[in-house]
Request: fold
Amino acid sequence: MATEITVGIAGAAGDGLDRTGDTLARTAARLGLHVYTYNSYQSLIRGGHTWLRLRLSERKVDNHGDHLSVLIALNQDGIERHAREVEPGGAIVFNGARFTCDPSLVPEGVHLVPLPVPQLTAPLGKLLPVMQNTAALGALLHLVGFDLEVTAEILHETFKKKGPEIIAQNLGVLRAGHEHAARHAPSLGYAWSFSRRPRPVVTGNLMTALGAVAGGLKFYSAYPMSPASFVLHWLAAHSEKVGVLVKQAEDELAVVNLAIGAGHAGVRSMCATSGGGFALMTEAIGMAGMIETPVVIVNVQRGGPSTGLPTKTEQGDLNQAIGASQGDYPRVVIAPSDATDCFHTSVEALNLAEAFQLPVIVISDLLLGEHRSTVDPEAIPCEVPIERGEWVRELSPDEASNGGFKRYALTPSGVSPRARPGTPGCMHVSGTDDHDEKGILISDEHTNPAIRRKMHEKRMRKMEAVRARLQPPALEGVADAEVTLVGWGSTASVIGEAAEQLTAAGLPANQLHFKYMHPFHGAEAAAILKQCKRSIVVENNFSGQFARHLRAESGFNVQHVLTRYDGEPFEPAWIARRVRDLVAGRAIDLAVEEHEAREMAYHHIRIYMQDRARPRRIERAARTGYGEPVWVVELVSRADAAPEGMLVIGMETGSNYGWHAVSPRLLIDPSAGMPAPAAGATAPLGQPLR
Amino acid sequence: MATVELTLKSLDSDVHPDWCPGCGDFGVLKSIKEAILELGIAPHRVLIVSGIGCSSNLPGFIRAYGVHSLHGRALPVATGAALANHDLHVIAVGGDGDGYGIGMAHFIHAMRRNLNLTYIVMDNEIYGLTTGQTSPTTTEGHKTKSTPRGNVEKPIQPLALALASGATYVARGFSGEQKHLTRLTAGAIAHRGFSLIDVFSPCVTFNNVNTYPFFKQRVYKLEEEPGYDAADFMGAMGKAIEFGARIPIGLLYRLQKPTYEDTEPVLLNGPLVDQPLGLDAKKLGELLAETM
Reply:
């Protein structure tokens, strides 16, 4: 069994959580461990609640898993929200001079490690508040048995530019935290075997950019949009080094048209955005299909619809990618499955775009784009195939004597050799109206149904050749499984791990994962799925977009569709639990769960109570006057635990029924049920009855 | 391959223009051809990018490279192409609806960049291809199919916008003064930086207000205006908004300054389209090392 831990760091935006997480991730990666991090954050520059989990393992891990071994809480809120999730044998580390941990929140067997940060750092002079993070990191290194010197080396490099004094301070705090923990807390007893073979710690977005550069990208345009902006930032920062012209434009309409203009002029071009920006781009994507110009568009999906969930993940844009733009035109839609795959998908996308002269849409998502994970350096080669397709360097004598260059020659393959503007003799116009072989419009008064038919068939013919090049899907995992989990894109790892868990628990499960959305391996998919006993599509959207696509393309209808659409990614146990329900014939329970009632209470507290309270006990009441069972959430003051009222949340609808005066008897005896809200018994939200 | 002698005729494409007889766009087409000829530019080094509308059919009528793109998107497509290969002479063309309506954001931002790009707007103050609705430059009170009681919106001032946005060659032409327009066009193509020519190009079918006689009675040439100085920004601003009994045509403003291409470090190594592709092992190693 591979040794692994999951460290959670909770705080607010501005607490320096990213830097701390980064240092820890690099430490583990230099020790030779595999790293996967998931950061659940909000669209805020300061404040809010940010929850970073780092899964550090001796084996390859590509999801954040189900566990929490150590919590580092950078604020009071972080302790209150996550202390109860720490597993026995684990620990909670926090600045004991600023925060307290209510013992009732701490599960049995969990070690509390409050750090007297001012005492520890007193000899080091006046320090910034974020230095508490470094002390906590030092303590963590002791707890989990990591090498202090590796982290010290990373901090040394990180602060090199800031001078010896800052380096000395950081190292001093790190060591002080470490020593304090070594004196006052046990080692948690992990027996690591460190290979000390360092691995790069990357994101999917970085790999998308790096793969594109390796694959010959020369032009990148973008408009800032989470979660795709990192591609812009990285390419802009490395523009000269990698020889890519990077242009931020006024909107996504400009972005995609810039990329198409560049692609038309003969360079490999790409742009990236998220769903909203992609929606603006769609008309031009159809243009690329019509004028047969290569371009790569990356959609790093986030929660939709509309502005939706700017910092949360979803796989909700499949319909949009496949259905982008009016009319039929050849296009390729690829959904990479992990960071390494993002690298190779960029290369493949650029090659397909140029070889077949069409737009290629890559659909990644926030989870894949932004999470950090280690990759094996040998899986990231500098030598990748670059396939530029068919080009005409000069006009053939045949064409010269026969009316000139046929840019859209009706060929058996559907691919017509193109001439880059600037090529003598091959002048032509690429028109978005339908056109003949030379590009002359056949629309308006010259409309010609016969030419239209053959030109349309020529363009669409490219799709068969594309499909023939793409790797069809294959079953992974145990043979002859009771249940086959079907997914696409970024969920490959988490679904695979869920299948392992199910198999280990006695329900043999395997996995069928799809990368190529369009063109689709419909026949191959049907052939596989018909042999499976029971198939369940697992995807990160509401309506089961992939299940519908699979049915449309293969004629195969899966037995169940398991969807998640709360903005959070799947965890293996989340999937496994619901798969067991489905297999047992139980419908998925959509009632508000206890932890969800707590989240709803936090929302209420933030908006109406200026964060002065926190939820304490949460009880269920079945017989109520609300027409549904409810959660009763007891709120207490953050300052002194004094009662702050209670919140009633409908278990079925999730409706916030508002504030009530505290009724301790009721909270102790939920079976008594809730009284119907009589006139005057409730107060407007945020104004507790006193 | 044999060199074809460059003549006006040799710049004709296979397609005869499908514009209405008398359309102002004929004059613009002829001026572009004459300017290319005058400047001695090989036609394969010219890329003409248009949007959608009657005037956007222009690339199809000239033997050069062309992209007949989407409504409003001529400038971003042209910009992408110009950045990818700055050895090309990239000319964007289109109408007032295309450039000042649906493409307005691109118009402003393209000028801010001072790319080496020429933009010729065939401004007929009407939507012609869609059979006569109000356009961004339709004058107040003008009755069109979509404004049967008369247009109530103030028309766009494209030249004033161009000056305010940083265009470095700002001119106005009139199809009815075709030789004059050729001089402006040649000047625009030769200019290093963003050049705009707003051309009064009358729609003989759907605009019975802004007709040839309407402009003939009003236009006067700036170069014949004593003391007019195209280097004077505020003076140009005054002329840009003059639209009444007298309407100026000619070069309003010109400024020599570095173009976007001059200041983009990646382009200092030559046109992007000729630069090497991919990464070597050393660079890849350095980029990955940043993450470790």
The two ends of chain B are 54 Å apart (CA to CA).
